[in-house]
Amino acid sequence: MDKIDHEYDHFGPWLLQVKSSDDIPHQYFEYQDLILAANYCFKVPVKEDRRNLHPGVLLYNKVVVINNDRILELSVINDQISTVELRFQDVQYMVHRGDLLNCEIRLVTDQNSLSIQYNLVSMDLAGTVMHLLRECVCPRGDIPSNPEIANQKYSDRQIYSYYLITEKEQGLLEILDYQPCVELGLLTSN
User: Fold this and answer.
1) Of 22, 93, 145, 152, which is the most exposed, with the fewest CB atoms less than 10 Å away?
2) 3-state DSSP assignment of residue 155
3) Which of helix, strand or coil describes residue 108?
């Protein structure tokens, strides 16, 4: 089985990690050295019904390359490879949102933004990517200590429960900071 048939046979509506040269879509082969040297790399499928596709057509419209200091998106636009590069030190915020069919990872800087849209079936890989991006954008330092939150069990913390459900974590999840509970009350008049 040649590489193009292999790619078509493994195609689906999910993100796939690029681990070797066999995983690189043929449209991106000129970037093979960059892709294989990455800390982490994955490809994003086109949003198209499989019955409308055949071996040799564009199956992955984006390849995302993550290194220590930057993220690079390679995408096919009008049969040309376009690149968007964001340095992690310039990232102002990240968004990870989604519903059943439309999920998104977005990184935003002053100058540019990068959006990766995917299907919910890729949540495991997306959780790994978000964990890696958080570590690259904001490396962990000392964890602030607060006795009020430290005395609670992890299972009682709402944010901990939320992240257990939505993110794939490699190790123990630690709360870095928190906002104390604020309750609304009656306004006092002067």
Assistant:
1) 145
2) helix
3) strand
How many Cα atoms within 13 Å fall on the side-chain side of residue 126? 23
| Cβ-Cβ contacts under 8 Å for 150 (sequence gap 6 or more) | none
Measured at the CA of 166, the angle between CA 23 and CA 174, to 5 degrees, comes to 105
Dmax over CA atoms of the chain, in Å, equals 80
C-alpha closest to that of 67 among 97, 89, 94: 89
**What is the enclosing helix (H) or strand (E) of 126?**
helix 123-137
Nearest residue to 23 via CA among 63, 78, 51, 54: 63
How far apart (Å, rounded) are the C-alpha atoms in residues 13 and 52?
13
CA dist., res. 138 & res. 107, Å (int): 13
Token pair, residue 146, equals 């607060």
Are 37 and 25 spatial neighbours (Cβ–Cβ below 8 Å)? no
Indicate whether 11 pLDDT > 80.
yes
Secondary structure of residue 61 in the 3-state scheme = strand
pLDDT in tens, 165-185: 676 656 665 666 666 666 666
Helix, strand, coil percentages in the chain from 3-state DSSP, rounded to 5: 30, 25, 40
pTM attached to this predicted model: 0.71
- Alpha carbon 74 to its chain centroid, in Å, reads 15
Which residues, in sequence order, are CB contacts of 41 under 8 Å at separation 6+? 17, 18, 35, 63, 64, 65, 66
